[in-house]
Amino acid sequence: MEAFNDIYRLYFHPVYCNALKITRDIPVAEDILQEVFTTLWEKRETLDAGKPLGGWLFVICYNKSVNILRKRLRESFLHKQLQQPDDSGPEEEMRFSAQWTILEKALSCLSPQRRRVFELCKLQGKTYEEAATELRISKYTVKEYLSAAIVSIKEYSMRHPESTALLVPVLFFF
After folding, report:
1. What are phi and psi of 43, to 5 degrees?
2. pLDDT (tens digit, 9 = 90+) per residue, 32-41?
3. Which own/partner pairs from 137-144 qualify as long-range (CB within 8 Å, at least 24 positions apart)?
4. What share of the chain in percent tops pLDDT 90?
5. How much is the pTM?
C-alpha cells in the first residue's frame, strides 16, 4: 500500500496532464486518472518490478483517453443519425420513423431512471457529469444505468428479430 501511494504521488500529475491534453475535458481526465491507478492496483501482482512503470502508466492512460474520444465520436454520430433528416426523401423518412419507433419500444421496457439517463446521454448528448447533476445522482450511477440500458436495448433487438435490421445502425454506435 505504501509503495502504491509513493507511485501515485510520483505519477498522478503527469498522468492527469497527459489525459487532459488528449481529452481536453477536466472531469474526463480525472476519471481516466482514477481508472489508470485502479488498473495499476488490480494488476499489481502481475507487473514486472524490473521494468519501468512510467511508460506502462502512460500507455494505459493513452489507451483509455483514445477509447473515450472514440466513444464520444460514436455518440456524436449516433446523435446525428437519430435526428430527423431535413431534406431527405420519403424512403429515408420512413426508415428514420421505423428506427425511432423501435427504439421507443425498447426504451419503454427500461425503468424510468435508466430511460432518462439514456435519453440525456445518448439522445441529448449530455456528459455523465451533466446527467448526474440534472438527475441528482453520481456520475458513476449514471454510467451504470447507461450500461444497463444499452444492454437492455440490445437484448430487446435480439428478442425482436424484425427490428434488428433497422436498429443495427443505431446499436452499432452504442
Report:
1. -100, 10
2. 999 999 999 9
3. 139/27, 139/31, 142/117
4. 31
5. 0.47
Residue 54 near residue 7, CB atoms below 8 Å: no
- Three-class HEC string of the chain: CHHHHHHHHHHHHHHHHHHHHHHCCHHHHHHHHHHHHHHHHHCCCCCCCCCCHHHHHHHHHHHHHHHHHHHHHHHHHHHHHHCCCCCCCHHHHHHHHHHHHHHHHHHHCCCHHHHHHHHHHHHCCCCHHHHHHHHCCCHHHHHHHHHHHHHHHHHHHHHCHHHHHHHHHHHCCC
Report the alpha-carbon distance of residue 144 to residue 171 in Å, rounded.
18
Low-confidence ranges of the chain (pLDDT < 70): 75-99, 161-174
Which amino acid would we find at residue 107?
Answer: L
Tracing cell 449514471 back to the chain, one arrives at 142
Which amino acid would we find at residue 79?
H
End-to-end Cα, the chain, rounded Å: 37
